[in-house]
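Note to self: keep these together.
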Amino acid sequence: MATSEQPQRDELIAAVKSMAPFPILMATFMLVYAVWFGVAWGVIGWAVFALFGVYAAWLIFCGVQHIR
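Structure:
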């Protein structure tokens, strides 16, 4: 039996799925720009880039989870 909240829930699910690619795009652009930390700062910059890489992986994982 459908409740009055069912259409609202469906709209919310659709909204979350439509926003899911944004973290993936943000992670990609973040990594593209973070490469310059390594170029500019050497070893410390590559360490910062590695941290951004871990954060980007987490963003991509969360984005893919919201698509499902």
